[in-house]
């Protein structure tokens, strides 16, 4: 087998396989003699094939390291070499062995005939690599769809209905409009829809129209080319629609989207493509749009404050999230989840008293679940005991619950007396029933406090 490379069969095979290949190729026998050279190799060296056949490689190329590769029986891959005609190239020098491991010869190949050609490819690779890393970093930063259906807390009929609808719409691959007051958890539901869908392993990219300056919205949504405007990044920027390609884009507070931007979003939906600022080249996109609002879009359409054609494109499917006051039966379960989180974060062990829970379930919660979490977070910090009592909750919750309880059968006088009683009881509790200290907390004379304690029939444990 050691003489196979010199055989007529092998040489004939090489002529058929490599003569017209545009890559420069030569074969040496085990002693380093050139037994085959293709036309591309001959053209590169500018030496006729017949002047090289049968000669030692070092006769043709005195600086060749091919004999060293054969001697050490180890390939040299992608090495830089300068040939006798002054050309530089990236080469392979590969020893060839038979099935028993005996050296048969070697294969030479010029990978890049010009170093500049390779440098240009490397430059292009670096540019593409930077763009890839930019995409990866942006997606990693923005892809925050961490909530699933199991994270939606509550067993009320209204929430169970919403959960069932999420399951129903998730895989329909149609745009969804989520409606609900501020703080009800619209983004949580948007993420749950994404994670229940066939797009779950693709990006979930969100943008809040009300939180973004109007002059930056277009570049954020559609991206821009390098040097498109003053202050633009030198490498350009990828827009949210491109980042969401294959996945979901969540347009929060869509009602606050400027009117002129609504037309651009409509075009992206209809054409399934976007155009970056500073470019005229369209980029195809495949995204599902989930949008959300706490405003009445139908009314805004009738007032020409929101485009009707965009509204109908967004509201293909819709989901309405109930306010917390309409599902008070979920408040104990939600409170437990919040307390567990805060206890872990702050190193506390807090629990709610019955009186405190009664106040939470009586309050009307204009800020919904977000406000509940805020109230409980403050109560955890403010409470002096493991049990969070009614007095640890903000006064506006207590006042609201009193008004709600007495709105039908009590006048203002009785409501004020109940509020006064609650504030004095809180001050006494904080001062360990020290009346002088309680009066200082309330910023009233001590004698006034004594009189009110007697008048309001407040019992003090001595």
UniProtKB/TrEMBL annotation:
This is PAS domain-containing protein. It comes from the Bacteria. Gene3D superfamilies: 1.10.8.60, Homeodomain-like (1.10.10.60), P-loop containing nucleotide triphosphate hydrolases (3.40.50.300), PAS domain (3.30.450.20). Residues 17-55 form the PAS domain. The keyword DNA-binding applies. GO terms for biological process: regulation of DNA-templated transcription. The keyword 4Fe-4S does not apply. Keywords: ATP-binding, Coiled coil, DNA-binding, Nucleotide-binding, Transcription, Transcription regulation. InterPro entries: AAA+_ATPase, AAA_lid_NorR, Homeodomain-like_sf, HTH_Fis, P-loop_NTPase, PAS, PAS-like_dom_sf, Sigma_54_int. Pfam families: AAA_lid_14, HTH_8, PAS_9, Sigma54_activat. GO terms for molecular function: ATP binding; sequence-specific DNA binding. Residues 118-145 form a coiled coil. Residues 152-381 form the Sigma-54 factor interaction domain. It comes from Anaerosalibacter bizertensis.
């Amino acid at each position: 087998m050691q003489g196979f490379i010199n055989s007529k069969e092998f040489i004939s095979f090489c002529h058929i396989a490599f003569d017209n290949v545009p890559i420069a190729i030569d074969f040496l026998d085990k002693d380093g003699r050139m037994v085959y050279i293709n036309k591309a190799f001959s053209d590169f060296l500018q030496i006729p094939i017949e002047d090289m056949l049968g000669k030692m490689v070092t006769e043709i190329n005195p600086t060749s390291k091919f004999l060293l590769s054969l001697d050490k029986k180890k390939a040299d891959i992608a090495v830089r070499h300068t040939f006798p005609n002054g050309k530089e190239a990236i080469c392979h020098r590969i020893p060839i062995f038979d099935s028993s491991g005996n050296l048969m010869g070697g294969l030479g190949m010029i990978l890049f005939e010009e170093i500049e050609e390779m440098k240009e490819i490397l430059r292009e690779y670096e540019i593409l690599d930077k763009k890839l890393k930019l995409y990866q970093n942006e997606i990693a930063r923005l892809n925050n769809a961490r909530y699933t259906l199991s994270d939606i807390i509550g067993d009320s009929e209204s929430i169970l209905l919403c959960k069932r609808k999420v399951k129903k719409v998730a895989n329909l691959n149609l745009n969804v409009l989520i409606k609900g007051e501020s703080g009800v958890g619209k983004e949580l539901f948007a993420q749950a829809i994404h994670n229940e869908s066939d797009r779950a392993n693709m990006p979930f990219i969100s943008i809040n129209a009300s939180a973004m300056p109007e002059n930056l919205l277009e570049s954020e949504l559609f991206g821009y080319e390098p040097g498109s405007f003053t202050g633009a990044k030198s490498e350009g920027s990828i827009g949210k629609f491109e980042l969401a390609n294959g996945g979901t884009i969540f347009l929060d507070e869509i009602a606050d989207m400027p009117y002129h931007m609504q037309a651009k979003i409509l075009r992206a939906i209809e054409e399934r493509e976007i155009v970056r600022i500073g470019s005229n080249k369209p980029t195809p996109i495949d995204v599902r749009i989930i949008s959300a609002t706490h405003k009445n879009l139908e009314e805004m359409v009738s007032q020409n404050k929101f485009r009707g054609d965009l509204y109908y494109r967004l509201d293909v499917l819709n989901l309405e999230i109930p306010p917390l006051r309409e599902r008070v039966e979920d408040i104990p379960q939600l409170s437990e989840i919040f307390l567990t989180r805060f206890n872990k974060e702050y190193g506390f062990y807090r629990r709610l008293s019955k009186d405190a829970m009664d106040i939470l379930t009586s309050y009307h919660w204009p800020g919904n679940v977000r406000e509940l979490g805020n109230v409980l977070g403050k109560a955890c910090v403010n409470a002096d005991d493991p049990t969070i009592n009614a007095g640890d909750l903000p006064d506006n919750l207590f006042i609201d619950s009193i008004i709600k309880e007495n709105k039908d059968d009590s006048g203002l006088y009785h409501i004020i007396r109940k509020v006064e009683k609650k504030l004095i009881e809180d001050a006494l509790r904080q001062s360990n029933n020290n009346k002088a200290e309680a009066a200082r907390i309330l910023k009233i004379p001590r004698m006034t406090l004594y009189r009110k304690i007697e008048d309001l029939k407040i019992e003090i444990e001595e």
